[in-house]
Amino acid sequence: MGQQNHSFVPLILGTDFNAYGIVRTLYDQYGVHSHLYDIKRLPGTRWSSLVDVHLMDQELRPDHLSETMVKVATRFKRQGLTPVLYACGDDYARIVSRHYQTLSRSIVVPYAAFDSLGEVSTKSRFYRVCQQLKLPFPQTVTVVDNDRSVLSPLPFDFPVVVKADDNVAWHQIDFPHYRKVFIAYTQEELNSALDMLQQHYHGSVIVQEYIPGKDNAMYVVNGYATQKGDVAVLSLGHGLLNDPNPIAVGNYLAIMPAYEPTVYRQVLKLVQHLHIQGLFNVDLKYDCRDSQFKMVDFNPRQGRSSFYTAVNGIPLATYPVAEFVQGGLENSSSPLLANDQPAKRRLWLNVAPDTFVRYAPECAAKERALSMIASHRFQSMLRNSADTNPLRRIIIRHTERAFENELKSMRQEKVTR
């Protein structure tokens, strides 16, 4: 644990794995406990001794949520504490950005205001920016108002990816067989996916070429930009194992830190063009067909797995504290590009090491990861000796077992397909 600093208080919207990564980073660095606000307790932070969880009304409207957080912040400010707000998940991040002006009067808000996110507020707009900046991205067709004539003929082959253009609106929908993203291998499956989307969701739909590759084709960059718009840090992670749950596509269970100058240049070009501030992350996929890293998604918040940055010496959640509470970031005009020293890299895991060994796809990076595990150069986000509640160990075992069962089930489905 770093030097204790109780001049600020973390207020975290969410109780998921994303939240726990922030909780752990701030406790490790400052010895500070976090206050979490959500409509339910999720396993990521359940029974943690490092948090105080405050449950909110499930019917709480976004404007009332901002009012609630302002009242909470005012109470802490009377105690001489500076409130720092963290939003976990797209829903909370969207609410915070929409109510940025109200919230930022009372709370440190390390995110971009919604009116500055117009170019990336939907996936189709994000891809237009990529096209404008000549950044590689998958071939894409946008279906507007269910006009499927734009798909005849498809400009790329099957399989294809089908997903909602507005992921926040899509996340708020709940129905049987919901999934974050659909993969269609035939025209019939494409029509079925579009029918399901049309039935439950009324926005535009993205149909995109499927970039071949297993879990280890995915990469993620988490970063922070100052209130002046200067990119302070970028940290690249190489995904080696993904969450198999259909509602959690794009979430990682194992990340190897990486250093790729090409990726850093691409992300810097994007973020500097957007001139946003605060925490953000970018997902990319490596396309072996043309050896390019292709932009898949941009999120104006830290990623669910961003604790890999702290494991590798970049405690991302501390950057807002350094900038707004401790007097500023050093050399923030020159971005720190992390993970340039291979000998210092450490594997981040959100599963048991044995599970990673069994289910991560074979590749050269996995061999390096196995070497890291053998030499104890890895860290589990959930297994935390500072989290002393005995019940916490039970939920960790349950969570790790659940991930292993899902991975086992997925492998069996692939064998029988």
List its traits.
4-stranded parallel β-sheet, 16 strands, alpha/beta, 8-stranded mixed β-sheet, 417 residues, 13 helices, globular
Give a written overview of the molecule.
This protein is of the alpha/beta class and 417 residues long. The protein is built from 13 helices and 16 strands. The strands form three sheets. Strands 9, 10, 11, 12, 13, 14, 15 and 16 form an eight-stranded mixed β-sheet that branches. Strands 3-2-1-4 form a four-stranded parallel β-sheet, with helices on both faces. The chain has a four-stranded antiparallel β-sheet with strand order 5-8-6-7, sandwiched between helices. β12 (278-287) and β13 form a beta hairpin. The longest helix is centred in the last third of the chain and has 27 residues, at 390-416. The chain is globular, with a radius of gyration of 21 Å.
